[in-house]
Amino acid sequence: MSDRQVTGEGKHDDTLVGPRSIAAAFITLLLMTGCADNSASMLNAAGPAAARINVLWWFMFAVGTIVYVVVMGYMLVALFRRRSGDFDEANPPNEGTGIVVWGGAIIPAIILLGTFGVTVFTMRALNEPEIADDLIIEVTGNQWWWDVRYPELGFTTANEIHIPVGEPVAVKLTSDDVIHSFWVPKLHGKLDLIPGQVTEFWLEASEAGVYLGECAEFCGVQHAKMQFLVIAQEEGEFRQWVAQQQQPAPEPGNELVQEGQEVFLDSSCVYCHTIKGTNATGDLGPDLTHLASRRTLAAGTIPNNRGNLGGWIVAPQNIKPGSLMPPTQLTGPQLQALLAYLETLR
Ligand code: CUA
Fold first, then answer.
1. For ligand 1, what atom is nearest to the CA of residue 219?
2. Is this prediction's pTM over 0.85?
3. Residues with a CB atom less than 6 Å from ligand 1
4. In terms of Cα–Cα distance, which of 118, 261, 128, 257 is closest to 199?
5. Looking at the chain, which terminus has fewer C-beta neighbours within 10 angstroms, N or C?
């Protein structure tokens, strides 16, 4: 019997995962979370605000680690320490009161106060810096997309915020329906978008690049598909983008595009969407004047290309169930003409 047991255990070791492989897998996972530096991790700060939040995070992580190690150390000592032989049940010794007072009250109070102090200091440092008021960005949260206005520059876009690199930019947030939360982990902390209220914020990127933003407050079934991009550009490139966005949509240059524009203007699209330079002035959905210049469709749900755009127009509910975009009934040629037109909206 005991022989069989030994054989059984030997087999067990060969086939099942041992603690060493679990540890190896865990460490690999930890390392992998560190290497994706194009991720949206707040630990890869790319702006002054995120860098400060990063310092606070590491400070709290260090304090938490020290407290954990010390407490676990005491626990291990307590586990393995034997009682001295002459322990008197009826009259227990009074030692240990000091450690309860210091370890249970005074030291935790000092640690919590210190952490609170550093947090308040960080929050003060995150106060809005000097911002030139010629560039304000108004962002309105909608289920489930972001309306982005540049009131001083006179244009509207969606789900994509361009900013000049190295310059703090004021962002005013509000919501048209429920509470959303604006979060670009590499640039700043989160801030809520509240219906009927305007919350103010600022963004600054130290390096040119594309930063992923997400809605960080559960806001309905498609909360997970409510993303946006912050694109930080060198001054010249940014000004070029602004100049392009300020233009109305180009006039159709050929017959197919002309036909596509007619399909658009004759359909129900016009009740929800604006294309500047045409009669379409709806404002329930994203402004489409420069749709083709944007990288994604449906708030980061799919890349913006002809195939996805066609699928989105014909069957949006398959791509983002619950979205307010209704399906559009079109014949094949009508859809092709419409796509040809929308592709000219650069
Ligand atoms: Cu909007 Cu979650």
1. 2
2. no
3. 141, 144, 180, 215, 217-219, 223, 226
4. 128
5. N
